[in-house]
Amino acid sequence: MQTIATIKPSIVGIGTFLQLRSPAISFVGTGFVVGDGLSVVTNAHVIPGVIDDEHKETLKVTISRGKSTEYRDATLVALDKLHDLALLKISGPPLPAMKLGDSDSVREGQMLAFTGFPLTIILGFHPVTHKGMVAAITPIATQAPSSRALDVKAIVQLQRNAYDVFQLDGTAYPGGSGSPLYDPETGAVLGVINKVVNATKESAITNPSGITYAIPANFVRDLMAGK
């Protein structure tokens, strides 16, 4: 499909580089290029909570160019933990950018595609594409850390922070977090893959549930606009 060939140069890996580590690159998730060609969108949970500055660990994006791989420095410029989104700025010349669509137009039953790096370095630095139907558009809220924290105020806050996400019947694997969810005909980004439902971490590979969630792309637009 021509759309896949067009968007692949916009797909990047997200990780950190530490010279003393083996391997030096710790590959965590996926991102995609938007806007000026130097802006990269991924999940907030993909960004490491702590960078080892003392040992010169740095945030990097990985760009697959056929048989070769390019690494670029990345800087975190915006973070939206509520919607699990992050915006990075990368060094070097601009890359082809994906266009954001209107996620309010998505309907249940619609077929969408997502491209990323499932199983990360195990499959190599080559973007892989999957497809899935929008099985449901359902509200979600950030959970409290424990049941003890669920007082009346916390419950009201949960309800206030609830927002709709896309539930897909396609399987996303570890490393696919941050992949763009897009219209396979136009390539317009309509969401960002952020998690898959599994009983255990091990079953994510051996017995995947086939239930994946994505954040609507309109929240990406808000993040880029500084809202």
Automatic annotation (TrEMBL):
MF annotations from Gene Ontology: peptidase activity
InterPro entries the record matches: Peptidase_S1_PA, Peptidase_S1_PA_chymotrypsin
A single GO BP: proteolysis
Gene3D superfamilies listed in its UniProt record: Trypsin-like serine proteases
Top-level division of the source organism's lineage: Bacteria
Sorted UniProt keywords: Hydrolase, Protease
Record keyword Signal present: no
Protein name per its UniProtKB record: Serine protease
Organism: Herbaspirillum lusitanum
